[in-house]
Amino acid sequence: MTTYSSGTTLGLDTFGDVLTDDAGAPMSHAETHRGLVDHGVLADQVGLDFFGIGEHHTEEMPLSAPDLVLAAVAARTSRIHLGSAVTVLSSDDPVRVFQRCSTLHALSDGRAEVVLGRGSSTESFPLFGYDLADYDELFEEKVDLFARLLEEEPVHWSGRTRPPLTGQRVVPRTESGPIPTWIGVGGSPESVLRTARHGMSLMLAVIGGPAARFRPFADLFREAQRRLDRQARPIGVHSPGHVADTDAAAREQLFPHYLEVLTRMSRQRGFRPPSREVFEQEVSENGSWYVGSPETVARKIAATLRTLGATRFDLKYGIAGLPAGAVLRNIELYGTKVAPMVRDLMAS
Question: Could you give phi then psi for residue 179, rounded to 5 degrees?
């Protein structure tokens, strides 16, 4: 089993966004999957700590079975930790999620992790026959069951959202469990308290506005762990960004695709359409998009980690339409330039 090499860990997350090739044409879904394997291998080569793939079910983000892609990455790497970012537990079966995670844990020699989430994108609910009216109950029950599965003992459990378990032992068992498990939280105090209650780690999805607005959630998590007499678990941050050789290059590479994707999402979800002004605010020191040169991004990440008392930062890289070459350069710079700078800044 491999372990992290320092107190501050730096990772990459992707939703499997469909990129464009050298001719500007969208890559196929098959090319997208093969490209992600190469991304994970490169992330390992440039010294990053974690590579995660988030479950999505859309034409622009077709990564519906990230575990399979991560297994392919595991076969070509030996050090980097691998996991979800996130697994939509509400529309899945906790037993099957555990089995897939423990299988990846075996294949990767103990490098598997999982981030569980309710799903800010809800395409999986109608796809698998779940009612959005049960959104909260589905997650609450299924997290409770998953926490019991992590104990790797015969499980006795009953609820409304799936058939009961009456003493079954779920396999495969891990060699070095329990599997590191995080809950992705977008700003709900109840979700923070649930994470502490189940003894899991907290992954804050900070995707807009100042990171400092999440400080009360980080403080609540630490206080809840103390109150519950739980072992202190780490806090991580998941935020979008893009690294290029200069600030100007990073912004100009990302902006047109940011505008297109978020405009489409604003129509679907009913929020205010983006603009250049909003983009510039988000990539500034006060925003939560980490866009710029290696030094700019490193300083902003270190400031966020200090503000929240977090020890883990995962950069959500890539966006639909971004050229594949720019994404590879982003991974290279993030691993070889940004991550060492962040570790130095946090150690000083």
Answer: -65, 130
